[in-house]
From TrEMBL:
Protein's name in the database: Homoserine kinase
Family listed: Belongs to the GHMP kinase family. Homoserine kinase subfamily.
Keyword Transferase: yes
Predominant location: cytoplasm
HAMAP family: Homoser_kinase
Enzyme nomenclature, EC number: 2.7.1.39
Keyword Magnesium included in the entry's annotation: no
Domain GHMP kinase N-terminal: 70-146
Amino acid sequence: MSELPPLELRVPATSANLGPGFDSLGLAWDLCDRVRVRVAREYAVEVTGEGAGDVPRGPDHLIIATLLGALRDLGGPVPPAVALEAENAIPHARGLGSSAAAVVAGLLAAWTWARPGRPVDERWLLRRARAVEGHLDNAAPALLGGLTLVVPGEDRVLRLPLDPRVAGAAFVPGDALATRAARGVLPPTVPHTDAAENAGAAGLLVHALAGAPEELLAATRDRLHQPYRAPLMPASAALVERLRDAGAAAVVSGAGPTVVVLGTAAELAGIAPATGFRVRRLRPGPGASVGTPGD
Ligand SMILES: Nc1ncnc2c1ncn2[C@@H]1O[C@H](COP(=O)(O)OP(=O)(O)OP(=O)(O)O)[C@@H](O)[C@H]1O
Ligand SMILES: N[C@@H](CCO)C(=O)O
């Protein structure tokens, strides 16, 4: 068991939905959590940065629980305990994919211990991530990097072309909002007209992100989730409206309450801070990586 090597992983923050692409489009950012795991006699968890005061310190820590479950699924080896060190940069429960990043870290670590030297089986990893997360639009870009499309109902994930001029600015509020709560307010059905608007906007968004950033404002309109969630995040909803009225392609990131503006670096340079939000400049980034410490 002690032959299982210590591992170091990096996993990116992600924005799911991007406006009209509910549960299907997602984008990885250059904001990453760093995680180290090793076999130990007793569980030990050291966390710095985001969520440090809140996450469990034992086998129920999301990364460790995911790792152990996946090792069992892969037929072992399951160590007596693991020690985990995490430097968290991704804010928790803000719509930037922190839980998907943790799940992808646990699954990549499990694969690396159970199948050393073998390229990760993406279908296995995404199936496991779906079982934990319920949807894949954060896990897919966290694993693959860049812009990804999940086809809900089909077991398929595509990496889509992304114009290198596209960047982001995240407005992260102080208050958290659990994804589960934000999904709980969505109605079981939506009007046909809203579905049609979103279908058109999602198609335009893929086109805009691939090479027509001047279309981003028109392409980021959403009728399927943001209006229903607005009462849970009134400050974010007001900020989206204000930014869009000023011509910026602002959307709610994932289930919120972070607001993300998509645009070229030149457009984003003019974005002013907003009271009650931390602003973080973002660039699209690569997917998760795993190696041994010091690599
Ligand atoms: N790095 C982490 N380590 C341990 N637990 C984590 C970590 N990241 C997230 N979690 C757990 O997941 C919860 C947040 O998950 P949730 O799905 O509500 O939000 P999110 O993933 O940040 O946002 P979204 O899914 O909308 O992008 C945290 O409160 C914490 O319990
Ligand atoms: N598509 C998911 C993303 C959660 O991060 C939702 O909006 O609920």
